[in-house]
Design brief:
Largest sheet: 3 strands, antiparallel
Radius of gyration: 26 Å
Distance between the termini: 36 Å
Structural class: mainly alpha
Order of helices and strands: HHHHEHHHHEEEHEHEEHEE
Shape: extended
Helix content: 55-70%
Number of helices: 11
Number of domains: 3
């Protein structure tokens, strides 16, 4: 009911605003004396200052309100550019306003709009899993290098010392990991592990050998998931307040299901970036979600194609490294540490 009311309110405002704008365009004078000119602009710039401060404070804490505040800041920057140019039109100062808009306000607004959400999630890269990626993940040398980088950036020599590998083997393993965007070399020469979401490829276009490799990989992952669920189910009464979950059934189109998946991953990434290393009062959690057609829906044969399907959403449940994740067969995996509940 609230949603419908807000939509009606927006539609009413849009319908009223158009004729009102036309009326103002024909009745307002071309010039007007304002006694509070200074107060108007000082107040406007103070509002911008407060929004930038709020964006800084919220963004530093990866708070979900950071993105809306950045959007509001971008809107005020665009308004600032508009009014500067329009109010200086016809005077020599207009060129300074145009330059300010082109070089400062508009680019800054574009950055805030484009990267506001990425700042919350850390900008995890998405990569379609290939058979080569599977072989690299099963390479024990690459696994040792990635484990060494889990605690923070290291140079090649430090990785070799921690893993007992030769510098040549470390360099080769880092090259394999860099090909799938799991690591990046920093300006000081150290290597840093990057968050990456491996997405399941479409079977179309895969060779028979690659298809078998990927199917075996996902079958293995599912087996590990079943073992993890069985372990957790046997101990669920011991977790107390440190375990959460939910179940739901809903009708979704394929497009809506993809959007749900993206929004879930954004949420997990935001919380996963809060504590990238163990901290006081935190514990490591297995976080998963699965959505799949219900048994009745699947047996009716409605699922294939772009028709609406029912998604069964299971409780969160991946072991996660805080800096990288591997997608399960139905979605992405990531990890997070949670704060100790307040007493």
């Amino acid at each position: 009911m609230i949603r419908r009311g807000l939509l009606v309110l927006c539609a009413t405002c849009a319908a009223v605003l158009l004729p009102w704008t036309a009326y103002l365009g024909t009745t307002l004078p071309t010039d007007h004396r304002a006694d509070a000119w200074r107060a108007a602009w000082v107040g406007f710039d103070l509002a911008l200052f407060l929004l930038f401060g709020c964006a800084l404070w919220l963004g530093g804490r990866r708070h979900p309100m950071a993105a809306p505040v950045m959007t509001a800041t971008a809107a005020l920057l665009l308004c600032d550019a508009w009014f500067d140019i329009v109010l200086d039109w016809g005077s020599a100062a207009v060129w300074a306003s145009v330059a300010s808009a082109a070089l400062v306000e508009i680019p800054l607004a574009a950055v805030l709009l484009a990267f506001g959400r990425q700042m919350l999630s850390g900008g995890m890269a998405r990569h379609v899993l290939t058979a080569g990626d599977v072989r690299a993940q099963r390479d024990s040398t690459v696994a040792r290098v990635m484990t060494a980088l889990a605690d923070g950036p290291l140079d090649t020599g430090a990785i070799a010392t921690r893993t007992g590998l030769t510098p040549h083997a470390v360099t080769a393993s880092l090259g394999e990991a860099a090909n799938v965007r799991q690591v990046r070399r920093l300006a000081d020469g150290r290597w840093r592990q990057l968050p990456v979401s491996f997405e399941r490829p479409s079977p179309a276009g895969l060779g028979e050998a690659d298809r078998r490799t990927l199917e075996a990989f996902y079958d293995e992952k599912l087996h590990q998931e079943l073992e993890l669920f069985a372990w957790a189910a046997a101990r669920h009464h011991e977790f107390g307040e440190w375990a959460k979950g939910s179940r739901s059934s809903m009708w979704l189109t394929e497009r809506e299901l993809r959007r749900f998946d993206r929004e879930y991953l954004d949420l997990v990434l935001r919380y996963g970036m809060l504590h990238q290393v163990p901290a006081e009062g935190t514990r490591e959690f297995a976080v998963r979600w699965y959505a799949f057609p219900t048994r009745d829906e699947f047996e009716r044969g409605v699922v294939p194609g772009p028709q609406p399907s029912t998604a069964q959403v299971s409780p969160p449940c991946s072991k996660a490294s805080s800096s990288s994740s591997v997608a399960g067969p139905f979605g992405d995996a990531a990890s997070t540490c949670a704060r100790t509940p307040s007493s």
